[in-house]
Amino acid sequence: MLSAVLLVFAVFEATKYGGWVVVAALAGAVVPDLSFLLGLSGPHQHGRLPRRAVPVYNLVHRPVTAIVVMLTCLIPESPSVAVPLFNFGLTWLLHITVDRALGFGLRTADGWQR
């Protein structure tokens, strides 16, 4: 349910403001999974994230990280900076909630799903 609410709100914000807000929304949806790039080189097993990628993966897949990004939108005085930043954090949080709904959580120190 939370994912659906966040999706509707993110789409509303992106269509309302357009431009960089749309770009920020798309980036926020993708950025958390860029942590997988840290594990591309080197051997790994199917379903296991390499150890060096685990701390970054776990950091960017914690809701508090996305919420902190959303709260930083209170700092800029210009809406042209604050609105894209807020929507970036909003879609980042959406990404995390969808992952949780699909059964993907944080990783153990060895890189396996918890």
UniProtKB/TrEMBL annotation:
Highest taxon of source: Bacteria
One Pfam family from the record: DUF4260
Protein keywords: Membrane, Transmembrane, Transmembrane helix
Transmembrane segments: 24-42
InterPro entries per record: DUF4260 (IPR025356)
Name the record gives this protein: DUF4260 family protein
The organism of origin for this protein: Streptomyces acidicola
